[in-house]
Design goal:
Number of strands: 0
Largest sheet: none
Order of helices and strands: HHHHHHH
Distance between the termini: 35 Å
Number of helices: 7
Number of domains: 1
Length: about 140
């Protein structure tokens, strides 16, 4: 029974759950069923949600020290952070595939667009240091 519980609470099931909306969006994009606005909304929303979940893990664990959810969130916050980066990357890819390069360059410094690019560029080093190998190289602290 413990093996079944650990399987369903393990990281591979979490990865599958985090990937489901992205797989659905990509499939709908490739088959032409989804429009640009729907893809941008979906990927942007999931990027934001997963970022918030990864950031709120420690406060929830501190507020509810005996709670299992807080401990689970702290243990898995890296997965939510990487999921946030993956959806941000997917959001950027859909944007670059839809919008002509000239328009991307012209509107780069508009506040809403610049905010998105800044978030994307901030995510890159965070995602690069989230691998198991990078975490081992950086050490415990």
């Amino acid at each position: 029974m413990d093996k079944i519980i650990s399987f369903f609470t393990g990281k591979y099931i979490l990865w599958v759950i985090l990937a489901i909306p992205g797989i659905g969006a990509t499939t709908k994009f490739l088959t032409g069923e989804a429009n640009y606005d729907m893809l941008m909304h979906l990927t942007g929303e999931f990027a934001g949600r997963f970022l918030v979940i990864s950031l709120i893990a420690t406060p929830i664990a501190l507020l509810f020290p005996k709670g299992k959810i807080g401990k689970w969130l702290v243990r898995n916050r890296r997965f939510f952070g990487v999921g946030a980066f993956a959806y941000t990357l997917l959001h950027t890819i859909f944007y670059l595939l839809e919008v002509p390069l000239e328009k991307v360059i012209n509107e780069f410094f508009e506040l809403g667009i610049l905010t998105g690019w800044t978030a994307f560029f901030v995510f890159i080093p965070l995602a690069m240091t989230s691998t198991d190998a990078a975490v081992r190289r950086m050490g415990v602290r």
